[in-house]
Amino acid sequence: MTDRTYINDEEDLIQLSSLQHFVFCPRQCALIHIEQVWDENRLTAEGRIMHERVHEEGRESRGAIRIERGMPIRSLRLGLIGKTDVVEFHKIEGNKWQAFPVEYKRGKPKPDDCDKVQLCAQAICLEEMLNLSVPAGAIYYGKTHHRLDVEFNDPLRKETEEAASRTHALIQAGITPAPVYDKKCERCSLVTFCLPKAVGKKRSVQNYLLEARREG
Ligand code: SF4
Hints:
Blueprint: E1 14-15, H1 17-24, H2 26-33, H3 42-56, E2 60-62, E3 65-69, E4 72-75, E5 80-83, E6 86-93, E7 96-105, H4 114-130, E8 136-141, E9 146-151, H5 154-173, H6 191-194, H7 196-215
Parallel strand pairs: 1-5, 7-8
Antiparallel strand pairs: 2-3, 3-6, 4-5, 6-7, 8-9
Helix pairs in contact: 1-2, 1-4, 1-5, 4-5
The protein binds iron/sulfur cluster.
Iron/sulfur cluster binds at residues 25, 27-28, 31, 179-180, 184-185, 188, 190-191, 194, 196.
């Protein structure tokens, strides 16, 4: 774990969800968090409604588990602010409680770590705010009705801290990276706005002309 503090001023906090966007695709992150583009389609609308429902239901207790919904969180060390979907507090002994964040996703587990990084960032925020350790959490996927347990081990924590650092750098620079077409573009909510194939091709032509001019 690094001791680096990225911000001193709460105004410089960035949205915790930006890490998930960054790990999925830095261009998607820049389009949303620099250019403020958001294309509401059926999939994002379903995801938004799912989150709104999760946050609405408030606080409850189930035996040795207390459930907090829509809890505001932040980390000054990583420069992040956001809201959890659910934090379960499991009674472990006496008056001691173990925090266990649970994030709700509309779809299914993804090939990259973007969802795990988002959840791990929530754990780091909870650790900083509550001064306790958060060793694990879970992601519930609506499409598969499956809860995936996630251990916040050292490699995932390192990946999360690097993602926070790189996302801050991207947003501070304020420059949207060029698109690079990939299989994941087909499941990107911004594909119709980004046009990765067309813009990528256009850039190739621009590069070709620039190179030809330099050589000539
Ligand atoms: S369409 Fe592809 S390149 Fe464009 S923002 Fe989405 S994932 Fe990134």
